[in-house]
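Quick illustration, no need to memorize.
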Amino acid sequence: MKIFFQSVLLLLVFASCDNGILGKRDSAQLVAKKFVSYMKHHDIEGAKACCTAQSAKMLDRIFKIGGQAFLEEISDNPDMRDSIVGDKAFVFFKNPPKPIYQTPIHLVKLDGQWKVDLLSK
């Protein structure tokens, strides 16, 4: 019984730690989806949190010229697929009325977390 309680206690400790054994960091798809949602709802601070430092600086200019409008066509719950190679990823969105995947968003993994990189080629 003592071993059982120690195991449960250890499990709770790991579960409570940020991204511990039971938790996991956000996937590239989840970060891209959050980014699109923040942009669609004009939440610049939320969108910046999903980006690399250089991309976050660029977002101010994008919002000033209304550049987030290209994301308006993405539905709130789109079909997605990703292509991940090492620390780089592309996430593609597909809306039901259109038969193809579109709107790729490039992400890079920094310190174990996926970040949107608007400046990559």
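The domain at 25-116 is CATH 3.10.450 (Nuclear Transport Factor 2; Chain: A,).
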